[in-house]
Request: fold
Amino acid sequence: MSRQVKQAGLLERRPGYYAWKIAVTIGMLAAGWAAFVVVGDSWWQLAVAAFLAVVFTQIGFLGHDAGHRQVFRTRRASYVAGILLGNLGIGLSYGW
Reply:
């Protein structure tokens, strides 16, 4: 099965996909915080909170992939991405 997975290319890095995914996720994060400010003190904050929960989950997935060194070629770049996404992005300890 391991041979089939490797032959299918499922373990190869996809830098284009991750560049797109990171850019879209950062854009959605900015939009979520902008909506948080615009909506103000109202019940619509619950919808914004649900939206941001989905965005934070995507950031967690990106941090997870960085931890498995699937995003960048070098170990250092993956570590820096993991720190930025995990520690700064969602408050999850990357080292833990």
About this structure: The mean pLDDT is 90. The chain has four helices and no strands. The CA atoms of residues 13 and 73 lie 8 Å apart. The longest helix spans residues 15-39.
